[in-house]
Amino acid sequence: MENNALMYTILFLGHLISASLALAIITSIIVNSRKKGILFLTIYLLLNLYSLTIVFKISTLMGISMLMIYIGLGVLTYFVIKRKLSKGTAI
Predict the structure, then answer these.
(1) What domain range includes position 63?
(2) Residue 52: which pLDDT band, with cuts at 50, 70 and 90?
(3) CA dihedral for 22, 28, 30, 35, sign (positive or negative)
(4) For the chain, how many structural domains are there in total?
(5) Average pLDDT, stretch 58-62?
(6) DSSP 22-34
(7) Would you state the pLDDT for residue 62?
(8) DSSP 90
(9) Which of 6, 3, 11 is nearest to 58 (CA)?
(10) What is the pLDDT of residues 14-47, one digit of tens each?
(11) pLDDT tens-digit series, residues 2-15
């Protein structure tokens, strides 16, 4: 049981870090080039959908927590992009 908790914690933290980095990259790409940003965002969303289906098969609780990561970071990224585009600043 202890190994499972450690595995899920490491998986959760790894996913949180990788999702944060990917959304930071998406933010900088969208500010510079909207077409490339939309393409990168589409690929990112498809990969996340695939990983969510796999995680939900393993553990429902882990799937829900990863879904919350995606929703929280997605909303945060939306407001950051909106603020940067309204100011007209790049990166």
Answers:
(1) 2-87
(2) confident
(3) negative
(4) 1
(5) 86
(6) HHHHHHHHHHH-H
(7) 87
(8) -
(9) 11
(10) 888 888 888 888 888 888 888 888 888 889 889 8
(11) 577 788 888 888 88
Coil, strand or helix at 88: coil
Angle (deg, nearest 10), helices 60-87 and 2-32:
20
Quote the pLDDT of residue 23: 87
In the chain, alpha helices (H): 2-32, 34-58, 60-87
**Residue 88, amino acid:** G
Q: Which of 73, 66, 61 is nearest to 25 (CA)?
A: 73
Residues in the chain: 91
Please, which residues have CB within 8 angstroms of residue 71's CB and are 6 or more apart in sequence? none
48: CB partners within 8 A, 6+ apart? 19, 70
